[in-house]
Design brief:
8 helices; KR_dom; single chain; alpha/beta; about 45% helix; Rossmann fold; Short-subunit dehydrogenase; Sc_DH/Rdtase_CS; SDR_fam
């Protein structure tokens, strides 16, 4: 990373616990000032005080519920106005029921507000400044369910698929303008979000990654310039082959005629 980027302020959503708090710790270790966003102001202030004490970095707290438009607007305004912010970590998210027929629509809507609408609006608020200066980074936290929805299903997997494809589209549009974009696809990670879905007792221990391990791997991928980082995937060529298979279909995805397999065999003398 450049000297300028090391001095950028990092705004992290969902920063009070878990993945967000660990990102805050790691960026503070690197010398970055921080803006910590979450609903729980007490936890934010406690974390901010520790980071300032241990790493001697400026740390600001911005309490906001990103599912509430008026509160989300405060974060958007900070991203537009604060010239020091050059890195955004879109981490805030919530889980949801895996059975769509049993999930209340209001719960799905709230999850979409947090998992889809909020990161999209925060990127939109920050991006013009990053493009104008020709430098900056956006890190979006998705999930491996983005490419394997059958493992859990429901609207949660769909919301994380959006984060993945949104990041890929964003990267294509801004990479030539000096903006770095990364999408992180964690597997099962030991965080509070699992308390919303019944805990981790039913999941084999070998499938559960600790938060420190996950964030350190994600930041290693960031340092290596990865656009897509899957912390538990041993061989990056597996992702590359998956992505290449998708790209190979591109010439066939939009044509002026339907594929022959969709056309009925009609006798010539009919």
């Amino acid at each position: 990373m450049s000297v300028v980027e090391q001095l950028d302020t990092v705004l992290i959503t969902g920063a009070s616990t878990g993945i967000g708090a660990t990102y805050a710790d790691r960026f503070a270790q690197r010398g970055h000032p921080l803006v910590l966003v979450a609903r729980n102001i007490a936890k934010l202030e406690e974390l901010a005080a520790r980071l300032a004490r241990e790493y001697h970095v400026k740390t600001h707290v911005l309490a906001a519920d990103l599912t509430v438009p008026a509160e989300r607007a405060k974060v958007e305004q900070r991203l537009r106005d604060d010239e020091t912010i050059g890195i955004l970590v879109n981490n805030a998210g919530m889980g949801g029921g895996s059975v769509l027929a049993q999930t209340p629509p209001d719960a799905v809507q709230a999850m979409i507000e947090l998992n889809v609408t909020a990161p999209s609006r925060l990127v939109a608020a920050l991006l013009p400044r990053l493009i104008a200066r020709g430098q900056g980074s956006i890190i979006n936290i998705a999930s491996v369910l983005a490419i394997a929805p059958e493992l859990f299903g429901g609207a949660y997997a769909a919301s994380k698929s959006y984060v993945l494809t949104y990041t890929m589209a964003l990267h294509k549009q801004v990479v030539e303008q000096g903006i770095r974009v990364q999408c992180v696809l964690p597997g099962v990670t030991r965080t509070d979000i699992w308390e919303q879905t019944g805990g981790l007792d039913a999941i084999p221990a070998h499938m559960i990654m600790e938060v420190d391990e996950m964030v350190d791997a994600a930041l290693s991928g960031y340092d290596q310039g990865e656009v897509i980082t899957i912390p538990s995937l041993p061989d990056v060529d597996e992702w590359n082959r998956f992505d290449e298979a998708r790209r190979r279909m591109a010439p066939e995805l939009s044509r002026d005629v339907a594929a022959d397999r969709y056309k009925s065999d009609i006798p010539e003398d009919a």
